[in-house]
Amino acid sequence: MSIGVLTAGGDCPGLNAAIRAVVARAVAAGLEVVGVEEGWQGLIEGRSRRLGRDDVRGILRRGGTILGTSRTDPYVHGRGLASLEDTLEREEIETLVVIGGDGSLRSAARLHDEGLAVVGIPKTIDNDIGGTDVTLGFHTAVQIVVDAIDRLTTTAESHNRVMVVEVMGRTAGWIAASAGIAGGAEAIVVPEVPTDYADLATRLVSRHDAGHDYSVVVVAEGAPGPSGEILTIGEDPFGFARLGGVGYAVAEDLERRTGYEVRVMTLGYLQRGGTPTAYDRLLGTRFGIRAAELAIEGESGLMVGLQGDEIVTVDLAESVAEPRALDPSWMEQASWFFA
Q1: Does 133 participate in catalysis according to the annotation?
Q2: Which of 14, 35, 207, 277 has its CA 20 to 30 A from that of 45?
Q3: For the range 204-212, what are the long-range contacts, defined as Cβ-Cβ under 8 Å and sequence gap of 24 or more?
Q4: Each residue of 19-54: pLDDT tens digit?
Q5: Contact at 8 Å (CB) between 41 and 12?
Q6: Mean pLDDT for the chain?
Q7: With 80 as the cut, is the pLDDT of residue 237 above it?
């Protein structure tokens, strides 16, 4: 029996920790592990390699993924399970561990329905997958944004500026809210809670009039701008919309309303790269061990998750049925510190 493992969709810190754990636990049980390269694309095209303990030594602290990843989807760019069968049969893969975000895990759930044994590990900096309190990569992304806010605050203060920081998250405001609170932002704009931009400008003016003549505003990329529209910057080669640009729209609106100098920092892919925090190394390790154990036990259609401090198993299809939105209570707590 072989267990396959792949990373699909956007990369994030902590993926190698999960790969390492899957391999270590499966090898300890006497099983072989097949690493699929470049996500679903590699499974379709037959690109894979055997992974043993020596292949995953020293990767715990590394960002990215040693297996590579891609945006290819077996249903958008292939024929579902039929597109994967040649590789699965050649490598004798009985269970596939899919480390992915909501799109990749939805495809994994469909493959389970077609008869392939799959186990999911939730990874995305957006933290928008159901069934788990935290997704792999989220913690590191938040820390990167907080570090950036700390640095931008000093330059904003030096020049009496308003700094608008646009962060990732797609349709969820988890990164913006978490990093905004931890970074001491004067305002946070998220998709889940409507923003009154006129009121925001008034609050910034009051803050500046009180002698605090700089401010930091954190904006989630999927939040509606002052016009009420969600802004995009075209599509990627696979036809998926690229969210972005709302930071500049917010900056232009605030500059017009307040008369202050407003600058924009779009952190972009910086949030997805680099060394994972200790938290994500631990989370990836715990997720990977449990996912391997589920595969060893012959389970399928399940996803591992974190609820409280416990690693749990949840129904894969139910977990990715709808994006997990930010709880508005986070913004209620954050508002006590707004300008």
Answers
A1: no
A2: 14
A3: 204/162, 204/254, 204/258, 204/260, 204/339, 205/258, 206/339, 207/339, 208/258, 208/260, 212/339
A4: 999 999 999 999 999 999 999 999 999 999 999 999
A5: no
A6: 96
A7: no
Judged by phi (left if over 0) then psi (alpha if -120 to 50, else beta), residue 228 lies in: left
User: DSSP letter at 277?
Assistant: P
CA atoms in the 13 A half-sphere facing the CB of 129: 32
CA dihedral in degrees (63, 69, 73, 77; nearest 10)? 150
Same domain, 91 and 40: yes
How many residues does the structure list for the chain? Answer: 339
Q: 103 in a domain, yes or no?
A: yes
The pLDDT value given to residue 195: 97
CA separation for the pair 250, 227 (Å, rounded): 9
DSSP state of 9: S
Q: Is residue 334 part of a domain?
A: no
72 and 173 co-located in one domain: no
Q: Which of 88, 13, 5 is nearest to 278 (CA)?
A: 13
Q: Is this structure's pTM higher than 0.90? A: yes
Give the total number of structural domains in the chain. 2
Spatial distance between the Cα atoms of 289 and 274, rounded to a whole number of angstroms = 23
The tens digit of pLDDT for each residue in 73-114 reads 999 999 999 999 999 999 999 999 999 999 999 999 999 999
User: Parallel, antiparallel, or unpaired for β 48-51 and 32-36?
Assistant: antiparallel
Helix and strand numbers (H, E) in the chain are 11, 13
Q: If we measure between CA atoms, which residue out of 143, 173, 120 comes closest to residue 13? A: 143
Catalytic residue among 73, 126, 253, 280: 126
What residue numbers bound the domain in which 255 lies?
A: 141-273
